[in-house]
Give the backbone structure.
Amino acid sequence: MDREEARTRPLFEEVTPAIYREDAWSGPHGFLFDAMTLLNGREMSQQFLDAADHLVEGIRRLDHEDYRIGFPILFLCRHAIELVLKSVLPGAPKHHRLDALFADLYCQYRDARGYDVPEWITTRIAELAQFDPTSTAFRYPEVGEAGWKSAGLHVGVYHLRRAIHELHTVIPTIAEASRTQRPTI
């Protein structure tokens, strides 16, 4: 593609036979964006988590310096958790507050099961919500209302990935458990 085509060709183009390919690995590389290919919240959440994993693997392979892609990894992980929470809450609100989204799920679970969500889950969600309360701290170059105004904090990328995967797996399990009432004796 020459410079002029890069400047004038639309980013979102009509589907034509020119985009057809034999398999997922052959070209032209791209993806469809239409009513048939729109994802549900859980699938979209998985794509954000997969993208974060890809970046973390790039660090492991020494393709990227960790400090150069830290904020995109943090954003992708946080957004994956936000989307998975929204995917399990009926009529999920349109805001970005992890604490409020999780509070809704927490209450549903406690009401249905008669006991609280395990503390490690509550603590982990609170930690994410503290450092990025409204989904802006990892996207914009200002501290704002985020809870990381200290002299410095370290995020271990492999620990982050493991913790986010655990949350991403357990949140739907909590939601499913909150849909079934605790047996009465």
